[in-house]
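Support reply, case 0932

Customer input (verbatim):
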Amino acid sequence: MESFKFIIFAITAIGLSMFLASCDGSSAQVNVNVNNEAKPNVEVTTTQAVVRQIPTYFEATGNLASDAQTDVAPSVGGKIVEVNFDVGSYVNKGDVLIRLDGRDAQIRLEQAQAQVEQQRRAVQQAEAAVEQAIAALRQTQVRLGIGDGETFNINDFSQVKSIRAQLDLAEKELARTTRLLETGDVSRAIYDQRKSQRDALLGQMDEARSNAAVAIKAIDTSRAAVNTARTNVSQARAAVATAETQVDQARKAINDTIVYAPISGYIAERNSDLGEYITPNTPNSKVATIVRTAVLRLRIDVPEQSIGKVSVGQGISAQVSAYPDRNFAGTIVRILPSLNTTSRTLTVEAEVENSGGLLKPGQFATVRITQSNPAPAVMVPTSAVRTEGEINKVFVVKDGVANERLVQLGFLENDMIEVKQGVQENETVATSNLDKLGDGVIVRQ
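Our regenerated output:
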């Protein structure tokens, strides 16, 4: 009986053991299923990290500034009647920014133009007077038988010459008659006749000389009239030139009522309103400030120990916090001659293309200045990097499992980025579905 009880107890114990084992197996299977559900398979694309030769560089900091900035102010005073811009608007060189009331300037222009016409008529009258004076001079010259520039001699006057010949003959006749009278060969009456003839010719000579003097005076008067008329023409022409200058000034005054944009760029400041009266004689009379941003100047502070690594023509790459995933290329164009004695840095200027307008003057930039000797670097696609705040991760795939790596990034070239630390050459990295990956997640490729 005792043996029977023992057998029953043994059978019961064995059955209980088998039940408990069965329960343990079910629990283990449940745990496996839970683990598989916690780490599901994720389908990813992959690529291998490669080594490329990339430019070497050293880093510095800098600030962006506009390539050109100008304050726009009018050159004349007046009331603003038109404003064609506002803060932030883009203007092209030559665009009309403001217009001033130009009615006063228009009146002055019309007055100056009328004065020009009046002086031109005076020139015409003076020129006509010159022609008349020259004609009178020609007539006198023809009458006296002299040409331009010739000196008139009173003895060459035709009347004087004729009477001179008659007088010479009368003098000779009188002298011969006087001798004959002394010898008694002629009568006293004949002598008196010869003497009367000679005296009459002397009177005629005086009259002829007087006429010649009058003719000479007429010549001088005509020549003086010509010179006076020519002087009047010169003065009238000078008056026309003065009046035309006043017209040009009046036109400039009208043009100055229109203020044009001297450069292309963005309006950074507006200091004018419709109806406001402005004058260039008051301090700070500018109406606007324009900044040119198509090309920006990047002022870089190079530490003293690195000044031997920079030169004009070097390429640079700039990053700003607003666009952390973008690099902006530029070229060093200027190097200041001396260091800042306080910060012990050398300021160099680079020009950065900004045709898209993404960069703004005043932004702070981290700058990489490219060196001449390239160096090998491990590169992965940018799609292989997951950024969480300031942490960058890459998932290395090995034996079908994703391994999370914290990485330090470096040089960016197109769609490839340098991994300074965390990934080795030829390691396989995931490039898709990174948001579904974690350390230890099973993946399929």
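We compared this against your earlier run and they match. Two observations from our side: DSSP finds four helices and 21 strands in the chain. The first helix runs from residue 2 to 38. Please reopen the case if you see a mismatch on your end.
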